[in-house]
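lol so apparently i was supposed to do this last week
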Amino acid sequence: MHAIAALNAAASRIGGDTARLDAEVLLAHLLGISRGALLLHPDRRIDVQAYDLLVERRAKGEPVAHITGSREFWSLDLKVTPDVLIPRPDSETLIDVALRLCQPAPTRILDLGTGSGALLLAALSEWPDASGLGIDASPAALAVASENAFRTGLADRARFMPGNWGQGLDQRFDLIISNPPYIAETETLSAEVRENEPASALFAGADGLDDYRRILPQLADLMQPGALALLEIGHSQGPALLDLAAQHGFSASLHPDLAGRDRCVALRVAPLQPPA
Ligand code: GLN
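anyway here it is w/ glutamine bound
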């Protein structure tokens, strides 16, 4: 069968908003070529049976990134398994904000809850003189992150360690980045996310703020003078994070994702107020 006919059939079998894209990514994966290369030669002949197996998994709700075993983030090709959150374009907001606000260039970067390593490796890819530490509570996630450091050629500058956020870390950093869990336990997620991605990377108590409440008290002792901390947030959590930030002595600003919704809070230790 020609690729184009197989793609059309696959897209209608998969259904949903991303059906066509999913069909293309899966076929490119099967052929071991880029999506661009696939689309340049829509009349190439393909092995329909092998393709059908992938399309069937997708049609049953398995994420594309689990079928291909990878996902692109900030132009890095990262390994993805069910042990880590699938890197999302929303999280690229943190790297955008870091590039704008983190002056001078950071040399020591900390990623709390590193998962696949996506944020830390993206940051290291932007700052060639920086080195970084990624912390995660999950040994399985740390194994994926280490593999990704090698895969992206950044292993000589990235270290990974098990830990409970920043607890017990006796170092200071110029830039701290984190995408903690922030979904309220009562929220209903799509079946695709709920059934395939680690709950420990998604849910954070009754209001989704539990992990910010753990992380914020630790941050100041991890920050060099003038350091910046960037946390990903849910789009309705901006006001709550501004409150928490003020309670813990930070000056904070909110930054939107590409859809224009609050996605990142930037924190700096607030200057001491002179006595009145
Ligand atoms: N942005 C993710 C989602 O909506 C959640 C990631 C997180 O909790 N850190 O599924």
